[in-house]
Amino acid sequence: MACMKLGSKTDAFQRKGQAWFCTTGLPSDIVVEVEEMTFHLHKFPLLSRSGVMEKLIAEASEGEDGCVIKLTDIPGGAKTFELVAKFCYGVKLELTAANVVYLRCAGEHLEMTEDYGEGNLISQTEVFLNQVVLRSWKDSLKALQTCDDVLSYAEELKITKRCIDSLAVKACTDPNLFGWPVVEHVGPLQSPGGSILWNGISTGARPKHSSSDWWYDDASSLSLPLYKRLISAMESQGVKQEIIAGSLTYYAKKYLPGLNRRQSSIESSNRLAPVGLGSSLSEEDQKLLLEEIDHLLPMQKGLVPTKFLFGLLKTALILRASPSCISDLEKRIGMQLDQATLEDLLMPNFSYSMETLYNVDCVLRILEYFLAMDQGTGGESPCSIDDEQLMGSPSLTPITMVAKLIDGYLAEVAPDVNLKLPKFQALAAAVPEYARPLDDGLYRAIDIYLKSHSWLGESDREQLCRLMDCQKLSLEACTHAAQNERLPLRIIVQVLFFEQLQLRTSIAGCFLVSDNLDGGSRQLRSGMVGTNEGGGWATAVRENQVLKVGMDSMRVRVSELEKECSNMRQEIEKLGRSKGSNTWGNVSKKFGFKLKSQMCSAQEGSVSNQNKINGKGLKDVKAKENHGKHKKNLSIDE
């Protein structure tokens, strides 16, 4: 730390208990009382340097104990007046960044101007401030920290503003271009060539370059009012928003203990990991700090980690922060919900009622903010995303990522017996239908909810299952749902119906691929591929065998589904006859099919015909196809 020595005389002051004595050989003729300390001094050195002391000495009356003066409001208290008294006597003292602000304010308070002697305290401290302190980052920071104790005087003399402006300018300047703060923080001396010196010898090693976050820890040592003013000054100087956000994040983690409870090992090992304070803030102070951090954070997506925002929100809920603060944090999270994880969403319910284990209402509001922002920024819609894109890439857009995240969250909160059906439905239905390429995740959450809420009636279960689209279930999910006793009968019938359609489509695709492979194998056998390409023939044969095995398993599954569907239809027709309704069309309408009732019968016929083809008729069909392809090959060769 830089310093400057004032005065030339040796120290002639001695302390005895709570009193200071000047040992110049002359008896003291004035006593100055500052706080609990008394100073036994002489009138002439004081009145020759201070206008205030001159007036007080002239007005003071001689008592039994001599002239006694009380100074009750001197900046810096007794410790600062000790330095002022030594300055008046010409005793050596050091000006430093730690005491210059106190001495400057005390000099102003005591009117120690040039009218009472050349090179008085005000001019000396001003020179040191401007030429030494404000040119150094470290000294400017230390001087600014001392302004808290004498804030009214420092504000009046514009010392606070000068220190803040000095820090702001240095923070937005590349530190690698100058000696600060690299030399101050790193420590080793450098040669003119830039290499590190050891005992005056160049080591050839280069000092590490400072990153843009080098000032975070220093700035976090300031009190909140001064830190706020420093951040505002940095913004006006053009410091980037992401750097400002990083500093605010660091400051919050340092003073809000709740943010560090779930800090990952990677963050804790980071060199910028904040160190906890020796004495933590009270809950009220933490709440005020959190609200100020929320106010200062830039409202821009991606500048602040989503995990940190969730930490702020959880802390705000615990500390009972203002509704506006909680709402702002929810909006910030909603802007970048696609970057969140399932662990982030699992926020405990801190309400006194403890209605549910997790705060589902908060997650619903965050989701609504995300959807509103997605629509406002022209997010993807059903018109701009076709089915092939959605089915082929489940994480194509942020909204599909959010849909997957919400489905996972629903599965986690579903076992809570206190979670009411309307709240579960509201969250599940809030996700747009086009955002889910598949409804497997939603089906899993519904199944868990039905298992944990077994007392739900048939109508409630049907209402819940209407949230998912049976046509968007994968083959595996359809297989599971068809055997799920917790699902209503209407849903099981729909699942069976659409599962048959999927299987038929898959079998048709397998036949097409198989025909293509058969044509390729004939080309291989006809000699179009040389002896060095025998590996292609073996691969084609293996793939053909695999496809045939898959087709056989699917045929078995189709037969089982046909039997189940036939049995179900017979049972439903019996029920229909008992009620006077003997038509399958009425039953199909009752179960909500969008296709005509004759579809099931037609499909049964097609499957039975297909089975015949797979037996005896399949050879004839293939023979005809091969004959046609053989003719085509001959025409090409000609």
Give a description of the structure.
This protein is mainly alpha-helical and 638 residues long. Among the domains are: 3-172, 2-Layer Sandwich (Potassium Channel Kv1.1, Chain A); 240-261 and 283-331, no CATH class; 336-376 and 396-469. The chain is 58% helix and 5% strand. The chain contains 28 helices and nine strands. The strands form three sheets. It has a five-stranded mixed beta sheet with strand order 2-3-5-4-6, covered by helices on one side. Helix 8 packs across helix 11, helix 14 packs antiparallel against helix 15 (306-319) and helix 20 (398-413) packs parallel to helix 22. Mean pLDDT is 77; it is low at 182-188, 264-279, 382-395, 524-534 and 581-638. Keywords: Coiled coil, Ubl conjugation pathway. Pathway: Protein modification; protein ubiquitination. Residues 28-97 form the BTB domain. It comes from Nicotiana attenuata.
Structural key phrases:
about 60% helix; NPH3/RPT2-like; disordered C terminus; 5-stranded mixed sheet; about 650 residues; Potassium Channel Kv1.1, Chain A; mainly alpha; two-stranded antiparallel sheet
Indicate the percent of residues in helices.
55-70%
Strand order of the largest sheet: 2-3-5-4-6
Return Rg in Å.
Answer: 42 Å
Category by helix and strand content: mainly alpha
Mean pLDDT: 77
CATH class of the domain at 3-172: Alpha Beta
Determine the CATH superfamily of the domain at 3-172: Potassium Channel Kv1.1, Chain A
Question: Total helix count?
Answer: 28
CATH fold-level assignment of the domain at 3-172: Potassium Channel Kv1.1, Chain A
Give me the CATH architecture of the domain at 3-172, please: 2-Layer Sandwich
SS strand fraction: 5-15%
Number of strands: 9
Regions with little confidence, pLDDT below 50 for 5+ residues: 182-188, 264-279, 382-395, 524-534, 581-638
What gap, in angstroms, lies between the N and C termini?
A: 97 Å
Characterize the overall form: elongated
Please summarize the sheet with the most strands: 5 strands, mixed
